[in-house]
Amino acid sequence: MGEGFIPEPEERKTKEQLGFDYFNELLSRSFFQPLSSTGSHFVMHDLINDLAQFVAGGICYKLDEKVETNDEYKIPEKARHASFLRHEYEVFRKFNGFYRVKGLRTFLPMPPKKYSCLPPFYLSNRILLELLPKLHRLRVLSLSGYSITELPSSICTLIHLRYLNLSGTSIVSLPDSLSELYNLETLSIRNCRFISKLPPTLGDLVNLRHLDNSNTDQLKELPVEIGKLGSLQSLPKIVLSKVGGLGLRELRNLEHLRGTVAISELQNVSDVDEESEGGKCEA
């Protein structure tokens, strides 16, 4: 969905439902195979994977797993989607080749091989401040698992971003300029245990459909402006505030919320009128 491959459904379906239909069709044709009995992880058969890489050519580029940490990756200029295995220390020189790739849409670090490298992972500030802001066509950006403490405001110039994954980072807060990412559909701050607040400008992200704020221990309140996100479908954690923050009254606008929602600080509901407003909310 982040790459824009799923069109607006004509029937009474969401993009997510249509995406599941596409996936199940590929699964039924053995394009994917279940990795475990739980059915939550899937893999490609080696032959299908080889065929997919051959058809994609240099458009989808998986950076060499065997390259040394401080070597520069040789990435084709026509590449649109790049993934790479995380290393404990990601140095700037390794990514110099990305400057030649003007149309890159995906920047996706992958988990390292089992037991080969354990978190935390460290990312050079030059990658955040100098390289990523120049990848103007990015739609999918993951910084998951890296020990970064802030998201530079320059990242918010990537106006084509639809998917931003900051899960498992050490981020404390998000910049007000986040509102400039007006195409953003998915924002994950899952397992960001140090994040303590979200900017009020979050309410300007009118296309946001998924805000994963689960396992955010220090996040004690949510901005009232979240009530403006009428397209929001997932928000695992809702914290109610007594004064100036999110209340039950604002939740009535989130009519598309689904899945599991945990609501805390219910003692901050101050009057009967607000309780009755909350009774109209559906989760």
From TrEMBL:
It comes from the Eukaryota. SUPFAM superfamilies: L domain-like. Residues 1-52 form the Disease resistance protein winged helix domain. Residues 130-258 form the Disease resistance R13L4/SHOC-2-like LRR domain. Keywords: ATP-binding, Nucleotide-binding, Repeat. It holds the Pfam family LRR_14. This is Disease resistance protein.
